[in-house]
């Protein structure tokens, strides 16, 4: 068993074990029996809106690079929920890019551009929520440079390929082609003012819809969640899932939310319900979309 896989399993067991220990059956029955379905429906609506916003962001950026359709982009996004239920996030994203069609590396650069903006926004919010630290400011600076000084990264990668060229000319030629296609897509996306501003605004909206969902689910189970705590929960959930390497972040996402809201039965219920509404239920929808798309191609 690979070391990374073992660590992911241990992270999953620890996360689930910790959350289960916070749950008391009496409080659990009470929370479930008194849940307000109106706020759960509101959370479902915001979850679907967040998906549409992410789809629109990718569609806008991709539309500047190649011919595409909103329906195909939505299918790829939904299929990603299904594939990331059992695949690492990086592999799931790669499969989404393949499904959207067209030039793979241009589509990849369009997806990466939008995700990078969202990560930059989250990093900035983290400094406001948890307080500015030297390491936090350094990380934000690195992300900012990577996004806006892409020429430096391109030059560095080009030099790496140049080192490989004497050893394997064909491999170097292939890597150079991949790099050129990816960088051309990224550069066009960043330098187009309209595309950049729309992507930035949609990234902000995507984050707000996800944070608002935590507040809505909390209201559904009678747990008041302040906006600041909701931001902390969302950030910790994202961070824990990224570090754990667990497919779909199962357990790690919930642990981050539970810790941010204060370990309790209601916090655990909110955490699991939020992830079900915003992620797990869409894995089933994604499975239908994935096999419909694959079946149509075959």
Automatic annotation (TrEMBL):
Keyword Acyltransferase found: no
Primary site of residence: membrane
InterPro entries attached to this UniProt entry: L-PG_synthase/AglD
Subcellular location: Cell membrane
Record membrane topology: Multi-pass membrane protein
One Gene Ontology cellular component annotation held by this UniProt entry: plasma membrane
Family indicated by similarity: Belongs to the UPF0104 family.
Name by which UniProt lists this protein: ABC transporter
Species name: Thermococcus radiotolerans
Lineage: Archaea, Methanobacteriati, Methanobacteriota, Thermococci, Thermococcales
């Amino acid at each position: 068993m690979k070391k990374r896989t073992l660590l992911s399993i241990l992270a999953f067991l620890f996360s689930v074990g910790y959350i289960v220990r916070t749950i008391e059956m009496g409080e659990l029955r009470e929370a479930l029996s008194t849940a307000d379905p109106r706020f759960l429906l509101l959370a479902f609506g915001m979850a679907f809106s967040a998906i549409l916003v992410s789809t629109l962001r990718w569609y806008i950026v991709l539309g500047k690079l190649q011919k595409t359709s909103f329906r195909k982009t939505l299918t790829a996004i939904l299929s990603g929920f299904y594939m990331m239920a059992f695949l690492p996030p990086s592999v799931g994203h790669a499969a989404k890019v393949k499904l959207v069609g067209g030039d793979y590396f241009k589509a990849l650069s369009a997806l990466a551009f939008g995700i990078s903006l969202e990560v930059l926004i989250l990093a900035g919010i983290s400094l406001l929520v948890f307080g500015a630290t030297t390491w936090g400011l350094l990380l934000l600076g690195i992300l900012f440079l990577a996004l806006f000084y892409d020429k430096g990264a391109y030059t560095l990668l080009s030099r790496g390929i140049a080192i490989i060229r004497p050893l394997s000319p064909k491999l170097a030629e292939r890597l150079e082609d991949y790099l050129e296609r990816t960088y051309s897509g990224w550069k066009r996306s960043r330098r187009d003012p309209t595309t950049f501003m729309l992507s930035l605004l949609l990234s902000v909206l995507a984050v707000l819809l996800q944070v608002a969902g935590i507040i809505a689910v909390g209201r559904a189970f009678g747990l008041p969640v302040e906006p600041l705590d909701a931001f902390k929960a969302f950030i910790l959930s994202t961070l824990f899932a990224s570090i754990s390497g667990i497919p779909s972040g199962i357990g790690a996402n919930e642990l981050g939310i539970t810790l941010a809201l204060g370990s309790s039965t209601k916090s655990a219920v909110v955490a699991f319900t939020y992830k079900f509404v915003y992620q797990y239920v869409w894995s089933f929808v994604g499975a239908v979309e994935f096999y419909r798309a694959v079946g149509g191609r075959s």
